[in-house]
Write a structure and sequence with these properties.
single chain, 270 residues, mainly alpha, globular, TPR_rpt, Serine Threonine Protein Phosphatase 5, Tetratricopeptide repeat
C-alpha cells in the first residue's frame, strides 16, 4: 500500500498517544495537575477527575485572582485537558505577562501553543522555560515535536537525543523519535525506536498504537493487529483493530474525500 504523510496533525498531542490518547503521548492528563500547582502555589491537591469539572473549579479560582500564577497554571492545564486549546493559550499568555520569568507558566504556555498549532511560537516560548545549563528533558521533547511539525526533522531529533541523555529509555521521547522517522518515511528506524519504547514497562497505550501503525505501514498488518490486541479485553481490541484499519486505509478514499486525523500523535508530555 502506498502511503502519503500529511504533516499537519499527523503527530500532535505529546502524548497522546493514547497519549495519540500523546501523543507522541501528548499527554496532558489531569493526573499531573497537582504536581504543577504545587510548584507555584501554597496548596497541592488532587485534581477533579472530570476535565469539565476541573475547568469549573480552577476557572472560579482563576477569575478570583487572574494574576495568581498558581491559579492560572491550574486553569490553563485544565483547559488543555478539556480540549479548550485557544482559551488555554489566552489564559496562559496573560499569566506570563503578569508573571514575567515564571518558568512553570512559560512551560505550560509553550505546551498550550503547541496544542493549538502555533509551533514556532511554542518552540520560542519553551526555549525561555529552561536553559542549556539546566535543561528539562520533558520540554526538550516537546520542542522536538514542534520542530517535527514545522518539517525540521533532523533538528527535532537532536532535541530527542538530548532528552534521552537525561532520561534514557523514556518511552514518550522514544515514541516521538519514532514518529519523527515515520514522517520522513524511514519506517525501519521508526519501528526500531518504537519497539524500544514499547519494551518499557512505562509505555502508554499510545506507544502500542504508534508501533502498530508503523508496522502496518510496512505491510505487516497481521503483526500490527497482534500488537494492538495484546493484553486487551475483546471489545477494546476489536475497536483498536478497526481504528488501525481505518488509519491504514485513509489514503484509499476517493480524491477530495475528507481524511481523518491519524492515530499517531506527537506527544507533549507534562
Amino acid at each position: 500500500m502506498r502511503q502519503r504523510f500529511s504533516l499537519a496533525r499527523l503527530l500532535a498531542s505529546t502524548s497522546l498517544i493514547a497519549a495519540v490518547a500523546m501523543s507522541l503521548g501528548g499527554c496532558t492528563g489531569m493526573s499531573k495537575l497537582s504536581e504543577v500547582t504545587g510548584s507555584v502555589g501554597p496548596r497541592a491537591e488532587a485534581a477533579p477527575a472530570d476535565p469539565a469539572r476541573a475547568v469549573e473549579v480552577y476557572g472560579e479560582r482563576y477569575r478570583a485572582n487572574p494574576k495568581d500564577a498558581g491559579a492560572a497554571l491550574a486553569y490553563g492545564q485544565a483547559l488543555r485537558a478539556n480540549g479548550q486549546r485557544a482559551q488555554a493559550v489566552a489564559v496562559l499568555e496573560q499569566a506570563t505577562i503578569a508573571n514575567p520569568g515564571n518558568k512553570p507558566l512559560l512551560a505550560q504556555y509553550g505546551r498550550a501553543l503547541a496544542d493549538n498549532g502555533n509551533f514556532q511560537q511554542a518552540f520560542d516560548v519553551l526555549s525561555k522555560a529552561h536553559s542549556p545549563d539546566n535543561p528539562d528533558w520533558h520540554l526538550l521533547s516537546v520542542q522536538g515535536t514542534a520542530l517535527d511539525q514545522m518539517g525540521r526533522h533532523e533538528e527535532a531529533r537532536t532535541y530527542y537525543a538530548s532528552a534521552l541523555k537525561i532520561a534514557p529509555g523514556d518511552p514518550g521521547v522514544l515514541s516521538n523519535l519514532g514518529l519523527s522517522y515515520m514522517l520522513t518515511r524511514n519506517l525501519p528506524k521508526a519501528e526500531e525506536a518504537l519497539r524500544q519504547a514499547y519494551a518499557s514497562p512505562r509505555a502508554s497505550a499510545r506507544v502500542r498504537q504508534n508501533l502498530a501503525l508503523v508496522v502496518g505501514l510496512q505491510g505487516r498488518f497481521a503483526e500490527a493487529e497482534t500488537i494492538v490486541k495484546a493484553d486487551l479485553p475483546p471489545d477494546q481490541a476489536a475497536a483498536n483493530v478497526a481504528y488501525l484499519k481505518e488509519m491504514l486505509n485513509r489514503n484509499d478514499a476517493p480524491r477530495g474525500a475528507p481524511k481523518r486525523t491519524p492515530v499517531a500523535s506527537l506527544s507533549q508530555p507534562d
